[in-house]
Specification:
The chain has 233 residues and is mainly α. It contains nine helices and no strands.
Length: 233
């Protein structure tokens, strides 16, 4: 996909949408982060939901657990398996705009996860009989959730203009949404996060993605206009 035939500058033409998504995601994340720091009432369902899912997980067959484990990998290793060759392809084709979206948006979101999780320092759920070895480090926000929103959101954003019909675009959007939701649910099912961790990951991914993608689209539009003016001078 080239920058001329990619997402067609949708967010550059609708920056208010990008701003709205940034504000919505930022507000939800701020509310959840404040609740975690102050042990607010929004956390009341965290432990009951996790305990209920854990009880179910310990009774489910291994096939279901493996499916949940694979769903979680869609937010990390499986996504990286797609992102690495994709970035190499864009680098080879010199598609700097798409590569910038991937590097700044998705890569930057991963760095933000490391900073925010250590800043908040929330412990992960603890079970006497965990489904698998607990992940190290703090759990708020969910890094898998952030990464899935940014990566699959970017893939969808670049893919939509190339689909032949509205039905295909709706189907692709639903597929991306399903993957993102499955990633988040798998983190709860496997006992790695609380619900507010996952919701905060979604919210931050939405805010950061909207900010970065809209800014890069506006910058590309600005550069394009400058180039056009220079030609006609």
């Amino acid at each position: 996909m080239s920058s001329r035939t990619g997402s067609a500058g949708f967010l550059a033409h609708h920056p208010a949408l990008g701003l709205g998504l940034f504000l919505l995601g930022g507000l939800v994340f701020a509310i959840l982060a404040f609740s975690v720091r102050t042990n607010g009432p929004l956390l009341v369902w965290d432990l009951p939901v996790d305990q209920s899912l854990h009880t179910r997980a310990t009774q489910d067959p291994w096939l279901v657990i493996d499916l949940m484990r694979f769903s979680g990998e869609l937010g990390k290793f499986a996504a990286l398996a797609i992102a690495i060759p994709l970035s190499m392809y864009w680098l080879w084709k010199r598609h700097w705009h798409e590569l910038s979206m991937l590097a700044i948006g998705v890569g930057g979101g991963s760095l933000w996860f490391l900073l925010l999780s250590n800043l908040v320092g929330r412990h992960r759920p603890i079970f006497l009989d965990p489904i698998e070895v607990p992940l190290p480090g703090p759990g708020f926000p969910s890094g898998h959730s952030i990464f899935s929103v940014l990566f699959y959101g970017l893939i969808l954003y670049q893919l939509l203009p190339h689909l032949p019909s509205r039905n295909w675009r709706v189907l692709a959007s639903l597929d991306a949404l399903l993957i993102i939701l499955m990633v988040g649910f798998s983190r709860l099912y496997m006992g790695e996060h609380y619900p507010t961790d996952v919701l905060a990951g979604y919210a931050f991914g939405l805010a950061w993605g909207a900010l970065v993608f809209t800014s890069l689209e506006l910058y590309r539009r600005y550069r394009s206009k400058r180039g056009s003016k220079a030609i006609f001078r």
